[in-house]
């Protein structure tokens, strides 16, 4: 039996979460793609025990206050989990959380909140990205908590579940 896979997500505050969830829902309906909770992945696909992850996010949340991040732009790609997303700069709070919670990562940290998962025809996706860019680019998103989530590339999206939460100081 394989160990459960979890991720650590940084979550937008309630108002921003509702805004982003509305965009995810609109795009999901328009393109027939999966629904998911908008989040910024700090550490993905780890088999570390939930107790260790819960302790790690609690400690980190005690040292980092809630913060605002400006949407640097809306971008698209061919990657399933980054088909359409809001990109952020690597700010001090984001870099600190990444280092503390995923310091062994080998990939380049590209903070983003995905807004659509899956393959979508390029033309209509570009049109949607342009529309969303007018609404989100330059807007500040408030992040206020870390979560341990049962999620990963091999976990069906409809089975992703928050199992632990820590509110930023």
Report on this model:
- With 169 residues, the chain is α+β, with helices and mostly antiparallel strands.
- It has helices at residues 14-31, 50-63, 92-102, 122-136, and strands at 6-12, 40-46, 67-76, 84-88, 112-116, 140-150, 161-167.
- Strands 1, 2, 3, 4, 5, 6 and 7 form a 7-stranded antiparallel sheet that branches.
- Strand 3 and strand 4 (84-88) form a beta hairpin.
- The chain starts with 5 loop residues before the first strand and ends with a strand.
Please outline what is shown here:
With 169 residues, the protein is α+β, with helices and mostly antiparallel strands. The protein is built from 4 helices and 7 strands.
Mean of the pLDDT scores? 95
Alpha-beta content class: alpha+beta
Number of strands: 7
Report strand %. 25-35%
Oligomer classification: single chain
Give the terminus-to-terminus CA distance.
37 Å
Spell out the key features of this protein:
169 residues, alpha+beta, globular
Summarize the helices and strands and which ones pair or pack.
Layout: E1 6-12, H1 14-31, E2 40-46, H2 50-63, E3 67-76, E4 84-88, H3 92-102, E5 112-116, H4 122-136, E6 140-150, E7 161-167
Antiparallel strand pairs: 1-2, 1-6, 3-4, 3-6, 4-5, 6-7
């Amino acid at each position: 039996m394989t160990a459960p896979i979890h991720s650590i997500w940084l979550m937008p505050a309630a108002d921003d979460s509702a805004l982003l969830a509305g965009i995810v829902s609109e795009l999901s309906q328009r393109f027939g793609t999966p629904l998911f909770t908008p989040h910024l992945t700090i550490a993905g696909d780890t088999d570390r025990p939930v107790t260790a992850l819960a302790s790690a996010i609690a400690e980190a949340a005690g040292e980092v206050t809630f913060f605002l991040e400006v949407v640097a732009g809306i971008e698209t790609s061919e990657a399933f989990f980054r088909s359409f997303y809001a990109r952020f700069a690597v700010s001090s709070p984001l870099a600190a959380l990444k280092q503390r919670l995923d310091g062994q990562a080998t990939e380049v940290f590209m903070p983003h909140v995905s807004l659509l998962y899956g393959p979508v025809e390029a033309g209509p996706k570009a049109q949607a990205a342009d529309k969303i860019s007018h609404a989100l680019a330059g807007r500040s998103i408030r992040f206020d908590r870390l979560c341990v989530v049962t999620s990963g590339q091999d976990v069906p999206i409809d089975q992703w579940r928050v199992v632990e939460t820590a509110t930023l100081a």
